Records
---
Amino acid sequence: MVRVKRRARGSNGQQENRKRVKEVSSMFSECKDMAENIKQKLYWKKLSQELATKFFASIVSLASFDGEKLHYESTGVVVENSLRNTCILTSSALVSTSDPERRFIYRLKIKLRLPNNQVVDGWIQHYDLPFSMVVVVTGYSPDLRTVCFSNSLQVQRNTHLLALKRCFKSGKLMQTHGVPSDDPSKSDSKGSMLSTCKITMDGSGGPLVDLDGNIVGINDYHDQEGTPYVQGNKIDECLRVARIRDEVQRHCWQNFTSAFKRHWEGSSNENGYSGESESKNQKQFLSSNPEPQALEFTEDVPTPELIEDEHKRILLPWPSDGFTKMVNALLDKDGYPLPAYADGGMRLEGHFEEEFGRDNLSEPARKIALKMSRSVVALASFSHDFKKRHFACTGVCIDFDGSTSTTRVLTSASLVRTSGDENELFDNLKIRVCLPSNECIEGNLENFDFCYNVAIISFPFRCNRTAMLVDAPQTEVLALGRVFKTGNSMATEGSVISKECKIGCKELKISTCKITKAGIGGPLLDFKGNVVGMNFYDTEGTPYLPSKIILKVLRRFDNAERPVAAGMTEEPNSSWPVLKPYWHYPSESKIEPKVKVVHHILD
C-alpha cells in the first residue's frame, strides 16, 4: 500500500512539473507575441511618421458652416497649387444634405485649416464631379504640395493601407490602418471599393495610401461595415475632365478649339478615344487659330458663293462624336444654341463671356476703375437644379444691412425675366453672385421692376465698399463690368451724347462707352466714383438708366409692404431687347440676301 502511494505521489509530481513547463512555455510565447506586437507597433509608428511627413503639406482640413453653426468637417488633398489659386479635393458631404441624394447647399461658408494652422476661406469650384467629390478653391499658399494619382496602381488583397485625416480644431494629422476588403471585387452601390480602415466622419475626403506612399484612393465615410474609397485612376480621370472644363472657361471661348484640342490629343488614348477615330468632317474645320472673342472653328479651304438652298445642301452637318458631344454639353449648360453646320470660321456671337475695355484708360479713369471694381460683382441665373444657365450680367453693391448681414446688389431685371419683351418672372430660378475674389455665393431676388428693367439681389456677405448713386448731369463717364465665369473686371470710358435711344423706355440716355452683354446691369460712373446710371446693351451706343430714375424705383421698393410686390408697377410696359446668342457661318455672307439670320430678342 505504501509503495502504491509513493507511485501516486510521483505521478502527481510529474504532472505538476509538466504543467509548470507548459506555463513557462506559454509565458515565453506570450512574451514573444508581445515583443512582436511591440516591434510591429514601432514599425507602424515609424512608417506612419514617414508617410505623415511625406503628405503633411498635402492634406488640409475643411469645415462648412450654416451661419455660425457647424455643418460638416472633412479632410482634403491638394490637387493644384498655382499663383492663380489652390484646389482641394474632398467629399461632397462637406456642402450637401445628409440624405443619400446629397443635395448641394449653396448658403454654406467654407473654412480651411492649412498644415501651418492658418485658417482661410474657400469656395466651391466643382460640385458636379462623379463619386460624391467636390473641388474647393482658396488663395495660393506656397507651403502646400500637390498630390498625384496613379491610373495604373493595382491594390492586392493583403496590401497594408493607411487612412490619413487632419482634424479641423487641432490641425493634427492622424491615421488608421487596414487592408482591402476580403473580396477585392467587392464594391458599394456607387462603384467605390471598400477597405477595413475605420475612419470618423471628418476623415471623409482624406487619402488612402499604401506602404510605398502611393495614393490608392480617397475615403468617403459611411456608417456601415467597411470604408468606401474612390480609386485613384477614377479620380485622375475626373480631375482631368474638370481641368479641360476650367481651361475652356478661362479662355472665355476665345481659344476654345486650340485649348480643347491640346487636351484631346494629349489624352485620347486614356479616354478610350483615338485620334484616328475622329471624323474627316471634324478634322476639316478644327484649327488652333480661332478669332479672338468668339468660339470659332477655322479651315483654309475658301468658301464658294452659294445661294440659300445650296448653302444648306453643301455645308456639312454638325457631326456627332466624342468631341462634339462634349462641346454640345458645354454649350447647353451655358444656355447657348448648338451649331447646325460645320462651316469654316464659324463662331458664336452674342455670348456672355465677351469682355470689353481693351482700350487704354486715362489715368483718372484707371484710378476710379481700380477703386470701384471692389463694388462690382457678376451675376448669373440658372434653372432650379443649376444644370442650365439662363442669363449672366453685372451688378454693383449699393448697401450693406448689418442687422441681417446681407449686401444688396443693383442689376438688370433681364437676369430674372422670361424674355426681353415679356413682363414675366422666370419660375424657380436660382441666382449666384461672383465676388471680386472669385468666390460664388447664392443670391436671392429681393425686388424687381420690369418697366425700368431693374432688380435688387441680396446675398449673405459684408461688402466693405458700396457704391453711391447720385443724380447729377455728367459728360465724361466710365462703365464697369465683370465676367461671371472668370471674374475678370472690365472698364471703358466715354462720354454722354444727345442721341435718341431705340429702346422703348423714354428715360434712357446714351453714352459712347462700348460694352458687351456681360456689362448689362453694370454701373456708369462719374470721375468721382459715383454711380450716375445703370448700363444696358445695344449695338449702336450704350443705353443707360439715369440714377434719378433708379433712386425713385429704390424708394418705391423700400416703401413696399411685401418685398417682391414692388415689382408690380402701374407704368406702361417697356420692351428691353437683348441680343440673342447665335452661330455665324461665313458661308452665309456669300448667300444672296433673302432672309435675315440674326435675331435680336431673347426668347
---
Amino acid sequence: MCLTANTQLAASTSSSTTVLEVQTKPIPGMKPGTSGLRKKVEVWQGTDPDTSYKYYLENFIQSLLDTAKAKNNGEIPHTIIVAGDGRYYNVEAIQLICKVLAANGVANIWVPQTGIMTTPAVSAAIRVRESGKCQGAIILTASHNPGGPGEDFGIKYNLEYGQPAGEDFTDEAYQRSLEISSFWTLEGSKDFDIEAEVGSEFVLNDSSTVTIIDPYEEYVETLKSCFDFDALRSFSKRPSFSLLFDGMHGAGGPFAKRVLVDELGLPETSLMRCNPLPDFGKGHPDPNLIYAAGLVGKMGLLPDGSADPDVDLSSVPTLGAANDGDGDRNLIAGAGCFVTPSDSLAIICDNWDAIPHFSKAGGPRGVARSMPTSAALDVVATARGIPCFQTPTGWKFFGNLMSSKELFGKKDYTPFLCGEESFGTGSDHIHEKDGLWAVLAWLSILTKANKDIAEDAPLIHVRDIVKKHWERYGRHFYCRYDYEGVDSDAANSVVDLIRNEYIGGESTVDETGIKFVQAEEFAYSDPVDGSQASQQGLIMSFEYPNGDGARVVFRLSGTGSAGATIRMYLEKFEQDPEKHDKAAPVALKTLADRAIAMVKMAEITGRDAPTVIT
C-alpha cells in the first residue's frame, strides 16, 4: 500500500490495535561491546536451539528504551530513527521494534525507505533532519560481520548528537536487561509498507506514527558541506582518472551510487557489488586485503598489499575503495599501492588543506586515534602543532572529544579528525566513522595534488603521495593478525600470561637481536567527562638492534558474536627510505614470530597461524 505524505493508515486507529504488556524474564549476555550487541541471527529471532529465548529482540529494545527514558529526565524520547544495513532479518526486526517503540509512547518513528541506511547516514539524519529533532537511533547492524542464516545480527544505539552510546549508557542498558520483567508492544497492528513513498505516514496507535524518510538527503548535504563537489566533479572528468568502488553488497552501495555517480558524474562502471544483499553475496563485508580480494586484485595488488609485478599499472584505476556492511569503514588503494588505515589517517591530517571542512577553519583543532592504531598520526600532529589523543578502541571514545564543547561546555576540538586501524576514519561532521567520507577525502587530496598538472600529463598518483609522506615522516610498518573463534578460556589465558610474566618483567634479547623492553596495560582517563576505562589492551614494547622502536599490542575483540577473537597488532618505525618499499607482513615477520612465541600462542590456543592477516 503506497500512501501520500499526508495519508494515514485508518485501520491502525481501530479498536483492534491495543497496547500490550508482555511478561518476560531477564536474558543473560546482553552486554553491548564496542559497537553494540551482536549475536547469531537465530538468537535474535528466538529460534536458536541452544538458547530458545522467545523475546530476545523485544527484551533488548525495551532495555534500551528504559535506559533512554532514564537518561532523558524520565521522558521517553519523542523521535527515534530505526534503520539497518539490509542484512538478513532487517525488515522483520524493524517491524517488531517499531511496535515496541509505539507501545512505549515514542511519538515519531522515522524509517528509511526499504529500511536500509548506512550508519553514517543515520548519524547525519539525527544531527540535521528537522533541525536536529531526533533524539536517538536504533541501528540494526553487525557492521563488517557476515550476514544470513547462521550468521550475525546486531543492534547499536546512537545518541542525540549522532554518536554511539557511551559506556555509561550501555552499562545501564545491560543492567536493565538483567532486571526486566516485561516489555510493551502492540497487539493487532499490521506491518507498515516499508517500500512506501518517501513522506508516507503510518499511524500505529493514537500516540505514534511511522514516517518513511529519504535515506540520502541529510547525508548528501552533510558531505557537500565538507567537500568541494564542483572541484571533485571536474577532476573526476579527467580522461586519465578512474575510480573503482566496492560496496561489498552492503548498505553503502546505493549511497556510493548517489554520491559518486549521481553527484560527481562518474560512470556506473566505477561501482562493483553495490546492490545490498541480505547475506552480502555470501561474502564477509569487511573492507580489508582478504575479504575485498576482488578489488585488491583489480588495483594491481597482491594479497599482502604489495604491488603485483605482473600487472600493468597504467591499466589500473587511479583510486580504489571499499565499504563494509553498514558503510562506516573504508579501504583505500591506488594503482599498485595499498594505504593502511593508519597511514591514511596520517596523510589526511597532513593534507587537511585539501579538504574544505578543515581548511575553512585553518585546520583540525584536534585529532585522535585508537591505541592499537599506529603512531603515524602522532608524528604528523606534532609537526603540525595539533592536539593528538590516544583512546581505547571504540568510536564512542572519539564522540566525547568531538562533543567536548556542544555537549560538555568544554574546549572545542572541532573540526576534528579521528580513525582506527580497523579501517575506520571520520570527523565531527557526523560523530561517526564514515567510509564514503574517507573516499572523498582522498579524492580531494588527489584533486589538489593534480591542480597544476596538465590534462595530457601523467597524474600524481596515490603511491606518489604515500611515498612522499614516508620520505618526510618515516614509515610506520603496520599489520594485524586476527585469531578468530578462539576458545574464550584459552584467549583469556594468553592475556593473563602477558600480565603475569611480562608486565614488570625483565628486558630480554633473543637470537634475532630484537630486544623486549617492557609491557604495560593501556588505561584511559577521558579528558572531557573524566570517565575511566581500564584493561584496554596489552602493549609489548621492543627495540631493534639499530635503535628503531617497535611494539606489539594484544587485545580481545568485542565485535564478534561467538567465541573470542585475539587481535595482535604489529608496528615498527623505519626512517630509511631505501627500506620503505617492503611489504608490511614481510617487514614485520620476525617481530611477529618473537611475540607469538613469547605469549605461547600455539601452545595455549592450538592455533599455528592467524585466521586473517591485514
---
Amino acid sequence: MDHSRRSKTFPPESHVQGSVAYRYRNLHPGSKSIRVLELDPEVPTEVISIQLHTIHLPTLFEYNAISYVWGDSRQKIPITCEEEPMHVTTNLRDALIRIRIHQEPAMLWADALCIDQKNLQERSHQVSLMTEIYQGAKVVWIYLGSDEEGHAEHIKALLDEVSELRTSKTFTLEGHPISRDPRWPLLRVMLDEPWFYRTWVIQEAALARDPRILYGNVAFDFRDVLNHASWLRESSVKLYSTLNLDLHIAWAQNWAKTPANPNEDFYDLLNHARYLGCTEEKDRIYAFLSHPLARIDGGGNALLRPDYEKPYLDVYRELAIKGILQSNTALRLLSAVEHTEQTLSANFSSWVPRWNVTQTLDTLGLNSRHYYTASKTVGNRVPNLVDHTLRANGCIFDHVLETFLLPFQRYKNDALSQAAEPSVEKSIEALWRSVSSRYKTTSQREIHIAAFRLTLTAGMFGEEDAEDISNSASHQSDFDMFGAPQSEYRNGNDTVTTPVTETIGSKSRFEYGMRLACTGRCFIITQQGYYGLAPLITKQGDLCCVLNGTKVPYILRKSTEQSCYKLIGEAYIHGFMRGEVAELITRGECTVEELVLDYRSFV
C-alpha cells in the first residue's frame, strides 16, 4: 500500500456538488468480500484522506470498526477517497479525526464509507455479514461525541473510584458519601448521548470482542460501563432511574446467549428496541438478525434475509407470518400491534405489528413476567393465514361503552424518570368521579374503587401480581399515598375513604406502575361495567375479545366487510385476565367462533 499520497484540498461542499464523486468498484455478488478503509495519518490539513481496500471474510487482517450515529445527512463535509471527492456527515468526520493516528495509517470499517449505500443489493448482502464484520474487528470504537463540557474525565474518575470501593465485600452504596457525589449526573449526560438511542448499536457493541467508548479525549471500556449500570440497578434505584440502559443491559451484555428468561423470543427483542431510532424502517428488524433468537430452530439460517429493495411494510408482514406459523405461542405476537388512526385506516393488515409505531411503555401480552392467562381454553384451533387474512378462534365477551383520556398519552424515552405533572393526581381523581357516578351505594363504590386502583397499574405490583396476598396490602397503601388527602375520592356530596392499612405506602411506586401501564392507553368502561386499559384509538362500540392462546384480551373493530374485524390492539380488562371468559362460555353467555381479521383485497 502506498502511504505517501496526501489529500487534495477541496472547497466547501456547496462548491463541489458538480465534482465527479468517488465511484465504488463492485464487490463480488454473494461473496464474503467487504471493504475496509485505510485512514491516512494526521497531516497539517484537517481534510480527511482515505483509501478503500477489499478483503475476504474470515480474515487474519487486522482492522477496527466504528460504531457511531450518522447524524444529519444534510450536513456533510468533504473528504478525499483515493484522491476523489466524497462526502460524510459531521459525526463520521469527527469520529475519524478522533481515531486518526499521528504517524501511521489506521485500518477501519465504517458502514457509510465501506458500503456503497446507493447500491441496494450490496447493502442487503453486506448487512447479512454484520455478525462477521463486528466479530472480526480487533476493537469496536464507540464514538459518542466531543464532550464539549469536559465531563468525561470526571466520569472516568468516578467510575474508577467506585470500582475500587466495590472490591470490598463490606461496601454498600446506600448511605456512603459517594452515593451523593455530584458527578453522577454527568454520567447521565454521557449515557443520554444519541448513540444509546440508535437501533444498530445494540448488535455493534454486543458482537464486539473489545468495545470501547470514545467520549471527548477519554476512552471507556463499554462492558465495564454496563457492569457499573447493572450494579447500580441493584444498589440504588434512585441513581439507576436516571439512566436508560435496560435494553443494553438485557441484550448487549449476553448477545451470543439466549435470554435469561426462556419465555422471551426474537419478538421480545424487537419490542424492547422499538423506541430506538433508525433511518430505514426495515432496520428495526434487520439490525437484530444477527441475534441467535433470529435463527430458525437455533440453526444458521436467519428468519429473514435483508432486502433493501423491499418495502418495509412487506418486511413487517413477512416476519409476522413467520412468527405466527413457526411459533409455539403463535398469536402472542399480536400483543406487539399498536396503531394510530392513520395506520389503522391504511390499506394494510391490522394484525401485523408495525415496529415503527411506539405508544406504550409496557406490552402486556409480551411481558413474560406478567401473570395474565386470559384465554386458557378458548378453543384449540390453530390460527390460519391465507394471503392477508388471519383466522383464529376467539370469544367476543363485551364491548366498549365509554373511553377516558389519561394524563400519560404519549411515550417518551424518559417517561418513567420524570417527576409527576402537577395535574396527575387531580386528573386521576376527576376520572374516578366520572366512572364512579353510576354506583349508588357505598359498598358498590368500595368494590369498584379496588377495581379502579388495580386497573391503573394493569393489575401489577412491580413485576408481581398486585392481587397476590403478599402484595395486595402494599398496593392498597401505595394508592392511598398517591391519591387525594386521606385517599378521599368524592362522588357528589358523598365521600368514600378507602381503608387505611398498616403498611406504609409509596406514592412514587404507585405512580411508576401507573405510568408503566397507562402511557399510550386510555381508560375504558365496558357495557357490562368492567374497567380496563385499551389502545388510545379505542372508541365506543369497539369489541372486547379473547383469542385462543393469548395472555390478554384484545380490542376489535367491525370492518366494512361482513363478519370481519380490524385489530386495534391488546387491552387490560379487569375481571378477564385469569381465564374468566371460560366461565362465560360454560354458562352459554358467549360462544367461541372463528374471528376473521382483515378479509379484503390489498393493493
